[in-house]
Amino acid sequence: MSPDLWLLASFAALLILGVPVAFALGLSGAVGIVAGLPVSMLATLGTNTYNSIAKYPLIAIPLFILTGLVFERAGVAARLVRFAQALIGPRHGGLALVAVLVCLIMGGMSGSGPADAAAVAMVMIPSMTRAGYPKAFSATLIAASASTAILIPPSIALILYSIVVPGVDLRALFAAGLIPGLLVGVALLLPAWFLSRRYRWEDPTQVERIALGPAFRSAIPALLAPVIILGGLRSGLFTPTEAAVVAAAYGLCVGLFITRELKLSQVWELLREAAVISGVVMLIIALAGIFAWTGTMLGTFRHLAEWLITLSDSGTTLLILVMVAVLIAGMLLDAVSIYLILMPVLIPVMQHFGWHPVWFGILLAMNIAIGQFTPPVAVNLMVTSSVAGVRLEKTVGWAMVFVVAMLAALAVVMLFPELALWLPRVLGYAV
Q1: For the chain, how many helices (H) and strands (E)?
Q2: Sign of the alpha-carbon torsion through 273, 278, 284, 290
Q3: Do 187 and 74 touch, CB atoms closer than 8 A?
Q4: Which of 87, 293, 379, 380 lies most in the core, judged by the most C-beta atoms within 10 Å?
Q5: What's the pLDDT at 359?
Q6: With b meaning 16 or more CB within 10 Å and e meaning fewer, what string describes 24-45?
Q7: Angle at the Cα of 24 (from 9 to 335), degrees rounded to 5?
Q8: 127, 138 in Cβ contact below 8 A?
Q9: What are phi and psi of 99, to 5 degrees?
Q10: Torsions phi, psi of 149, nearest 5?
C-alpha cells in the first residue's frame, strides 16, 4: 500500500474507531511519516505542532470564544429577545421570527454557533412552547439560525480560513460573509413564518405587546457590540485580532456594570470554560499541522487535487461535487477540522478553476453551517434539543425543511458571486 493510502486509511480508521479528531490527525500523520519518509522525520513532530499554532491571528479564537460566553451569561439574549418582540409585535409566527433575528445579532458578537444556540434556546424555547410551538420545531429553528454565526462577522471559522489560505484578507472575508449571512436568515424566516401561519402557532390575541422604547434602551449595549467590532475594523482602529480583545473587554463591561447579571466571582469560571473550549480547538489545529506537513511532503494533497481535477472539465460541475463533499463532511466533523483537512486539497483545485478565494471561503462556510444542525452530529442541534428536552431524532423532519432553505441560499450565492464580493469591494478591501 502506498504512503498516501497509509496516511488517509489510518486517519479514516482512527475516526471510525472513535478516536478524537485531533489525535486521529496527529497519529495518522505519524503513520504517513513512517510509511513514506525516513523514520528520522518523526523528530519534526514537535516543531510542526508548535508551528501550527504559533500564529498571531489565532489569538482571536480564544478571545471570541470568551466573548460568546460572556454575552451568554450577561443577560444579553433576553434583552435582544424583548427588543425583537417589540419590533415584530403579536402575530402568528412572531416568536419564530424573533428567534431568527436574535440569532443573527448574537452571531455578530461571538462567531460561535453552539454558544449562540445555547443562549437563545434558554430564553426562547420556554416562551415558544407556551405559545404552542412544538419543542422539536423550536429547537431545530434556533439551531439552524445559530449556524449563521459561522457567516456573520466575527466568525471563528473565517479566521481559520484566512490563516489556511494564503493571501486572503480576513477583513474582506468578514465583509463578504455579511450579505450571505443575512440571506440565510431570510431563507430560514420564510419557512418558519409559513409553517407558523399554517399550523396557527402563537395566538396574537394572547401575546403580550411589549413597549418599543424601554425594550430598545435595554438592548442598546447588545446592539452596540457588532457596531463596535465592525466599525473598528472598517475604520482601521484595530486589527481583527485586536477586535477580539475589544469585544471580550466590552462584553465584560456590559455584564459587570450595565446588565449586572455577571458577577465578578463568575469571571474566573468564564475564563476557565473559555480556556477548555479553546484548548480543544487549538489542539486540533496543532496536531493537524503534523497531518498537513506529512501530506505535503508525501504529495498526497497534490495527488488528490490532480485526481479531483480529472473528474470534470467543468468548473461548475466540480464545484457542485466539492459542495456535496463538504456538506457530508459538515454532518460528521466540526468546521475547524474540515478546513484543516480539506483545504490543502481544495486550494490547488480552487486555483486551477480560478474560483475567487473569498467567495469560495463563504461557500464553504455556508455549507459547513448546514452541517451544524444536520444529524448525525449536528452540534448546534444537540445543544438546543438538550435545552428543549427532546430527542434528537424528533427534530430530523424539521431539520430537513431548513436544510432545503439554506441550500437554496447557497445556490443563490453560487450563481451570483457578487453577493459575497460586492461589500468587501465597496469597503476597499483586497478581493
Answers
A1: 20, 0
A2: negative
A3: no
A4: 380
A5: 95
A6: bbbbbbbbbbebbbeeebeebb
A7: 105
A8: no
A9: -60, -45
A10: -60, -25
Name the amino acid, one letter, at 267.
V
Torsion of CA 370, 371, 376, 378, to 10 degrees: -90
Cell of 179: 450579505
Longest dimension (CA), the chain: 75
pLDDT at 61: 83
- The C-alpha cell at 157 is 471559522
**Looking at residue 257, what DSSP letter applies?**
I
Return the sign of the alpha-carbon dihedral for residues 429, 319, 325, 343: negative
Q: Kindly report, residue by residue over 312-335, the tens digit of the pLDDT.
A: 888 889 999 899 888 888 877 778
* Grid-cell match 413564518, residue found: 193
Return averaged pLDDT per consecutive 10 residues of the chain, 431 residues in all. Answer: 88 88 90 90 88 83 83 81 82 85 82 77 86 90 90 84 87 92 93 88 74 87 83 80 85 88 87 86 87 88 86 87 86 80 89 93 92 78 86 87 94 95 88 75
- Residues whose CB is less than 8 angstroms from the CB of residue 38 and which lie 6 or more positions away in sequence, other chains included: none
Measured at the CA of 106, the angle between CA 175 and CA 373, to 5 degrees, comes to: 90
DSSP 34-51: HHHS-GGGGGGHHHHHHH
pLDDT at res. 411: 95
